[in-house]
Amino acid sequence: MNVQRYFLDINSKMDLVPAECGIAGLSIQENDKSDPQYCKFLYQKIGEDFHWKDRLVWSIEQWGDYLSQKNLKFFIAKIGNDVAGFYEYLHHDEKKEVELTYMGIFKEYFGKKLGGYLLTHALRSGWSHKPNRIWVHTCTLDHPNALRNYIARGMSIFKKENVKV
Q1: 62 φ/ψ angles, rounded to the nearest 5 degrees
Q2: With CB atoms 3.0 to 4.6 Å apart as the test, which of 19, 34, 99, 130 could cross-link to 116 if both were Cys?
Q3: How far apart (Å, rounded) are the C-alpha atoms in residues 10 and 28?
């Protein structure tokens, strides 16, 4: 199967086109990363429809090692007490960039503007590290709105590639 992969970035916080979301009781908070099993569950359940596979082979110890990185930030979106989604990023201070590594929401929240709002939160949080750019990659296996959401928030494609999977 051929997959189109897109690499996008944003180079100024002034380029951010924020999205609003009117879901009552929505909060987005940084997770302390102390529960690798929980983080693995979010990755697995949200990613199962989008072929997120690279971390499925990780042991809980590998998850713990990954989550213990000081430059990794992990945020969880909740509506009341229900988890709606998450995002994570790595801030590479030596390169002056932030890499948005994963972002996703549970199916029951599709179509409610939560993805745009979550991405807005991620970009604003990423800019707190004063990077020269924030970047991400997505592909045709991801949610059909993923690429449109990145572009709508002010990100631009800087590279495309075809990948066989």
Answers
A1: -65, -40
A2: 19
A3: 22
Residue 154 belongs to domain spanning? 2-164
**CA pair distance 70, 126, nearest whole angstrom:** 14
Q: How far is CA 152 from CA 24, 112, 149, in A?
A: 23, 16, 5
C-alpha 61/C-alpha 97 separation (Å) is 27
Question: Max alpha carbon distance in the chain (Å)?
Answer: 42
CA atoms of 43 and 49, how far apart (whole Å): 11
- Give the chain's domain count: 1
The pLDDT confidence band at residue 19, using thresholds 50, 70 and 90, is very high
Helices (H), 48-107: 60-67
Span 38-93, pLDDT tens digits:
999 999 999 998 989 999 999 999 999 999 999 999 999 999 999 999 999 999 99
* Backbone φ, ψ for residue 19 (5° rounding): -115, 140
CATH number at residue 117: 3.40.630.30
